[in-house]
């Protein structure tokens, strides 16, 4: 399966077929999820309308973290099986993940203003997300700094894998540093403690964000494959010109 | 140290740098006591071939094997590679530079401190560095630096010497000293591959004329995943989608 | 083993000779410590409160400052290629280089840091623990810095990139390093738990850094 898709020509063909459907699906799911989140879901009796920020904030945070893990897995895959498309997938995913993380930080800050009375609080979660954003920036900078794409892929892979080892350590140390955060309520073993009237729209929004990520990732990969092909042709031309 | 059956073989080597094919289908063979001279115009891939043998470049296809060498040691560790850079620390004296490489590369197993001193003195004498030994590497002239770099190959015994333009900056006396060093290495059953424009007059010399490829040849390799020639893969595809969308 | 020690000895010697940058790093450290009271104001009570954290930040910035030269010289003069053809695995070469950097940059800075603490009105009782934590933690700082140096060797904007890559990884060390000396004031005593976590991070860096450095160096040498 992966072997089959790792060939860029097959990938481009498949992506061309899937893309319109994927875009349509993403738009529809997003429209429904936002309708649920912004209109149907009830106000929180403490937080009022601001609770609706959560429908954007939580999916963006989850994907912001998830995409970094995805990148590390893609690179691990690329290291073992030498599929250049795996490294390219990580490269394309990084800016998307960085933007999701930035959305998470911004919405967290917007939510914080009415709740905490200030735009920014050094809350453990916000701080961890901030550090994650820095990790994304470093990773993206590596791709830009190394010219040869194959070398860049290897170096970026090392950076991503070292980063993913450090994510839990950073998370743990930031929690240690700031033990004032709320306990994570979505990932409890005895079932989510959130009321279904909030949870269902939240899950729809997560699905919508995930679809958005997949759509953008495939588009980005297409661009990446074509860009590298252009580079190859330029190099070949330069070589032929002697 | 080296067995008489030593033989360095490169088979069907192809090399790609910066997306273009430097050479492909290149084969060579050097036996113990022989020297292979690489000739050809600039940019033809002489340095790349040497780096490929030394293990700094992975060939797109083909293999390099040292027959009769030590099976438990990678080829790179049986080679001395003299590149364009001299690997000299300007803050350290000539002797300190050499002592470091001696300690790092090792003078062969079971060697005593006394042996090492002997080797150090031999290397210094072979490249006429006696008068310079206490000077810091930073004050040496280009030719003197080159001699110091070449002294490194006389320190630790390794069967294969890969020399990239070893005579650059050397005066006639130093060239003669280098020739003497190389002659002794070959007599001891060693192998030398050198890219050079100077004829060293070694007894057993083979020459490899390298020419630029007529047209960029198609070579199987990782780069092709993104290359225009990846279109070839479509041919052996199951053909379900045919030419696909343009 | 002999080759391993030879690399450490050579790098320490290079660091001590003219052109080594240990003096520069110490000077930088001193400057940051002087800039702090100037920026914040000479409030002795405030300075006393922030002294451990300020010293840690100055320490990790100084170590990072000297990091980008760890591999650059060896890469440029071709030594790195020769180092990669020795019998010593490249992982151990990287470890030796990192240990040498710790000996000539990390450890001296960690030792003078508590002394400079008196400029920031550091509590006398905290100095021994601060020294211990910094001496231990600086090993991980050097290991991570040399990993950053290996990742960015040969790149034009390497120095800037190291900071972006490595400073986020310094955060856990900063947090636990500081909490070794600030835990005493109110609440349970977390001095030793913090120190043990710091030690654990150092041990992890001891494993990860040589592996990642060697992988990065191989990618650059190819």
Protein model, in words:
The complex is a heterotrimer of chains A (242), B (246) and C (222). Chain A is an all-alpha fold and 242 residues long. Chain A is built from 7 helices and no strands. Chain A has one domain (20-179, 197-241). Chain A is 81% helix and 0% strand. In chain A, α3 packs antiparallel against α4. Helices cover 28% and strands 22% of the residues of chain B. Chain C has helices spanning 2-16, 22-40, 44-65, 69-76, 79-83, 90-117, 127-152, 158-182, 191-221. The radius of gyration of chain C is 18 Å and the shape is globular. The longest helix of chain C has 31 residues, at 191-221. Chain C has one domain (2-221). With 222 residues, chain C is mainly alpha-helical. Chains in contact: A-B, A-C, B-C. Chains B and C meet through α2 of B and α1 and α5 of C.
Give the key terms.
heterotrimer; B: 246 residues; alpha/beta; Rossmann fold; 3-stranded antiparallel sheet; 6 helices; 8 strands; disordered C terminus; C: 222 residues; mainly alpha; 9 helices; 81% helix; 0% strand
């Amino acid at each position: 399966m992966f072997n089959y898709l790792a060939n860029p020509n097959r990938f481009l063909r498949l992506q061309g077929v899937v893309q319109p459907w994927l875009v349509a699906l993403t738009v529809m799911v997003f429209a429904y999820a936002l309708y649920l989140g912004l209109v149907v879901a009830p106000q929180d009796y403490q937080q009022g309308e601001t609770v609706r920020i959560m429908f954007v904030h939580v999916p963006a945070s989850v994907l912001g973290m998830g995409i970094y893990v995805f990148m590390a897995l893609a690179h691990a895959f690329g290291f073992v099986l030498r599929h250049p498309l795996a490294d390219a997938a990580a490269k394309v995913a990084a800016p998307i993940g960085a933007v999701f993380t930035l959305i998470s930080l911004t919405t967290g800050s917007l939510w914080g203003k009415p709740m905490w009375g200030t735009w920014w609080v050094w809350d453990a979660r916000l701080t961890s997300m901030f550090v994650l954003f820095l990790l994304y920036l470093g990773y993206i900078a590596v791709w830009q700094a190394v010219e040869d794409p194959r070398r860049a892929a290897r170096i970026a892979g090392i950076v991503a894998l070292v980063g993913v080892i450090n994510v839990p350590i950073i998370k743990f140390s930031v929690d240690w540093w700031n033990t004032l955060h709320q306990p994570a309520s979505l990932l409890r073993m005895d079932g989510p403690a959130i009321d279904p009237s909030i949870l269902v729209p939240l899950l729809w929004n997560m699905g919508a964000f995930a679809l958005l990520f997949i759509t953008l990732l495939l588009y980005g990969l297409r661009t990446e494959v074509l860009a590298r092909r252009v580079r190859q042709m330029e190099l070949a031309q330069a070589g032929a010109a002697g | 140290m080296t067995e008489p059956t030593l033989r360095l073989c490169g088979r069907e080597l192809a090399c790609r740098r910066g997306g273009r094919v430097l050479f492909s289908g290149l084969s060579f063979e050097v036996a113990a006591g022989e020297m292979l001279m690489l000739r050809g115009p600039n940019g033809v891939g002489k340095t790349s071939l040497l780096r490929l043998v030394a293990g700094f470049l992975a060939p797109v296809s083909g293999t390099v094997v040292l027959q009769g060498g030590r099976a438990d040691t990678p080829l790179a560790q049986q080679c001395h590679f003299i590149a364009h850079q001299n690997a000299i620390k300007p803050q350290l004296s000539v002797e300190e530079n050499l002592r470091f490489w001696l300690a790092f590369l090792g003078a062969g197993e079971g060697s005593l401190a006394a042996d090492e001193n002997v080797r150090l003195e031999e290397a210094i004498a072979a490249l006429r560095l006696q008068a310079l030994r206490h000077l810091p590497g930073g004050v040496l002239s280009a030719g003197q630096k080159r001699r110091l770099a070449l002294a490194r190959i006389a320190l630790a015994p390794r069967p294969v010497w890969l020399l990239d333009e070893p005579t650059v900056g050397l005066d006639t006396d130093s060239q003669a000293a280098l020739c003497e060093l190389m002659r002794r290495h070959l007599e001891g059953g060693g192998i030398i591959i050198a890219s050079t424009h100077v004829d060293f007059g070694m007894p057993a010399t083979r020459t490899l004329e390298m020419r630029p490829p007529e047209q960029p040849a198609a070579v199987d390799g990782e780069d092709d995943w993104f290359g225009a020639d990846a279109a070839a893969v479509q041919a052996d595809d199951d053909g379900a989608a045919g030419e696909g969308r343009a | 083993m002999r080759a391993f020690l030879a690399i450490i000895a050579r790098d320490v010697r290079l660091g001590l000779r003219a052109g080594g940058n240990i003096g520069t790093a110490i000077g930088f450290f001193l400057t940051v410590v002087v800039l702090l009271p100037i920026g914040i104001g000479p409030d002795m009570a405030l300075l006393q409160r922030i002294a451990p954290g300020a010293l840690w930040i100055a320490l990790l910035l100084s170590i990072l400052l000297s990091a980008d030269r760890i591999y650059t010289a060896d890469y440029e003069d071709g030594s790195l290629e020769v180092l990669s053809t020795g019998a010593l695995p490249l992982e151990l070469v990287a470890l030796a280089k990192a240990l040498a950097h710790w000996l000539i940059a990390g450890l001296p800075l960690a030792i003078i840091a508590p002394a400079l603490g008196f400029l920031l009105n550091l509590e006398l009782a905290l100095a021994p623990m601060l020294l211990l934590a910094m001496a231990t933690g600086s090993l991980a700082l050097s290991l991570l810095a040399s990993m950053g140096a290996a990742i960015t060797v040969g790149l034009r904007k390497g120095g800037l990139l190291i900071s972006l890559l490595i400073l986020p990884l310094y955060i856990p060390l900063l947090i636990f390093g500081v909490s070794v000396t600030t835990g005493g004031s109110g609440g349970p005593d977390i001095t030793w738990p913090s120190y043990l976590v710091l030690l654990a991070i150092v041990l992890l860096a001891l494993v990860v850094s040589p592996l990642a450095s060697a992988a990065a160096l191989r990618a650059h040498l190819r």
